[in-house]
Give the backbone structure.
Amino acid sequence: MKNLVIAIDGYSSCGKSTTAKAVAAALHYAYLDTGAMYRGVTLFLLENNIAFDDMPRIEQVLHDEIHLSFKRNRRTGRNELCLNEVIREDDIRQMRVSNSVSEVSVIAQVRHAMVAQQQRLGRKRGVVMDGRDIGTTVFPDAEVKIFMTADVEVRARRRQDELTAAGQDVPLPDIIENLRKRDHIDSTRAESPLRRAADAVLLDTTHITITEQVDFVLDKVSSALFAAYAHKING
Ligand code: DC
């Protein structure tokens, strides 16, 4: 079976990572959460009091002091983000990181470093990546491109449920404001903004279940595999 790249982009909290993880598991593909990488950089800058406009320092830490990797947690089966070899999965999901991550993601030097690492991690293909610019910038040649969206209130309620499960009590209006702000910054930045690639399929998750989301993507994967096979046998 041909190893594909499956790019899942879209707005914050549409269910991209839940869908991407399930699709990766069904296909025995790797899963890469690119948002976790931007969150890891943000956590490092916050913890080291590095201003988001201090470009020489940011370039230096990206080069010499920030090492991002993923480690599989055997108990949960989750791929967890490590910052300098230490698992920081819970810390990168805190609201203080969520409130700053879009500002950090705007920085061209940060994006160049993350995109280069994501391209290296996916070079063997057979990977599902979720993010904002996978289908447009990281893997413009991805065989399957999905662009996810959903009503902001529905997204905020889902996000609140996740935060509650993780022991964080955050009021709904704060979450809505955070999502709106992130969507705006992510879609209007100069460097690889969040936008639907011309060949991406739109998936609105407002009224559908996770199973339906996953089936939708797997259906697109079947079509892509069939197209690749037909291309091969027809020369
Ligand atoms: O997917 P997430 O909500 O964990 O992503 C956090 C932030 O990272 C998001 O607001 C924008 C940024 N991001 C990005 O700019 N490009 C990506 N490929 C993934 C995430």
Q: What stands out?
A: The first strand starts at residue 5 and ends at 10. The radius of gyration is 18 Å. The chain has a mean pLDDT of 95.
